[in-house]
Amino acid sequence: MLSTMGASCQRSYGTLLSKLPLFAGIEMDDDELAHFVEHVDKDNNGIITFEEWRDFLLLYPHEATIENIYHYWERVYLVDIGEQAVIPEGISKHVHATKFLIAGGVAGTASRTTTAPLDRLKVVLQVQTDHAAIVPAVKKLWKEGGFLGFFRGNGLNVLKVAPESAIKFYTYETLKTIIGDAKGEKQGDIGTVGRLVAGGLAGAVAQTSIYPMDLVKTRLQTYACEGGNVPSLRKLSKDIWVQEGPRAFYRGLVPSLLGIIPYAGIDLTAYETLKDMSKKYILHDDEPGPLVQLGCGTISGALGATCVYPMQVIRTRMQAQSMNTDAAYKGMSDVFYRTFQREGLRGFYKGLFPNLLKVVPAASITYMVYEFMKKSLDLE
């Protein structure tokens, strides 16, 4: 008799607990409520006893209101990394944002480190105003610093590219969702124009966010071309601030944005379009593998880089030159005029070949790693 009454009281207690979120004004569906009850019900018998509720509260460090307890459970449940772990809806958006940032950052770091020597060679060729040849430039870089000389500035490169790539991919995925919602379509069906807009804006946001680091990296990579010992990153940044002012860190931003907006738009749009086409017509709705991703990244990267390369040359020349010199460029139009006058149209494509040698594998590696990270982080 007593045991029956005790069991009945426990069931009533568990029923009351299951109704408390409603009384507290917390919106949660049946699945969330079931997960919450399951988390508290340690012996999985379908009954929350007083002891189980007490033990659960003992781990809670703040004021034990029902609303606070539920939000605490949201955070705690995220730590469960078992095969059946489910991220509560209340924080899923923030978790997805973090995952996209991680995926983009890892992808950018992997691709940039792999192609660092080609990036150094490209920058050196871009700032040379006389006839530039690849083989002499490679020999010069080797003579100046040996094997490690090809990786000069890569540490700063990674510090720049990791957040840039993270911001770009996260912004792109976010804008796809916004555009898709505005059009009443799924985020993957926003069309070519939607992808161009999302990609261009994502590239602009990312580039503006990290531009000072990009300028310091360019100065560091090209310092030896002007003679003298290579300064430390801290000293070089301080010298730019003191001698040229804070505005110098954004020198060349306009041509950079004029280049990155179409580049990011073309690159991201071409990649996703090619991936969708290969999935539909070649793979017959199967998910593209690493080789297909590499191929799509190769074509999209080469197409985007070639279209906007002249703006990249103008930006690099503005970045590499100190504002206090007599021969300093007066602006973007001055760089364009002097380059065309001295070197003709070919001057706007100096370093294009090593740039393609860098961009093509970099884009391929970036997309392949990004797709891998998305799958690993359950973003697909």
Structure description:
The chain has 380 residues and is mainly α. The chain is 74% helix and 0% strand. The longest helix is centred in the middle third of the chain and has 32 residues. The chain is elongated. This is Calcium-binding mitochondrial carrier S -2-B-like.
In short:
This is Calcium-binding mitochondrial carrier S -2-B-like. The chain has helices spanning 2-23, 30-40, 50-58, 66-78, 89-114, 116-127, 134-149, 154-183, 191-222, 233-244, 253-282, 290-320, 332-343, 352-376. With 380 residues, it is mainly alpha-helical.
Helix content: over 70%
In the predicted model, the low-confidence regions spanning at least 5 consecutive residues are: 1-18, 20-24, 75-92
Largest sheet: none
Element order, helices and strands? HHHHHHHHHHHHHH
What is the rounded distance between the termini? 54 Å
The coarse overall form would be elongated
Put simply, the count of helices is 14
Class from secondary-structure proportions:
mainly alpha
Spell out the key features of this protein.
mainly alpha, elongated, disordered N terminus
